[in-house]
Specification:
Layout (H helix, E strand, L loop, with lengths): L8 H70 L1
């Protein structure tokens, strides 16, 4: 009966093993991809925290000082 179209148990076992290997590879690939994305994001954040925020803070601080100075001079003249 196995020759009429029904699969033999040994063939089913081989196909099951192959399928489980494919599933395992796909899961490993996705978790690896997720890990790499996370590492890239963390690395990007670390690089930015070293360089960019300092510049932003300095620029904002300088802008705030300029804005603070002008109204004080104006208020002092008005009073």
């Amino acid at each position: 009966m196995s020759r009429t179209g029904a699969l033999e148990p040994s063939l089913l076992r081989v196909q099951g093993d192959a399928q489980s290997q494919i599933v395992a590879r796909a899961r490993a690939y996705l978790s690896e991809k997720r890990r790499c994305k996370h590492e890239a994001r963390v690395g990007f954040m670390k690089r930015n925290s070293r360089t960019r925020p300092a510049k932003r803070i300095d620029e904002t601080h300088a802008r705030n000082e300029d804005e603070d100075e002008e109204p004080h001079h104006g208020d002092g003249g008005a009073q």
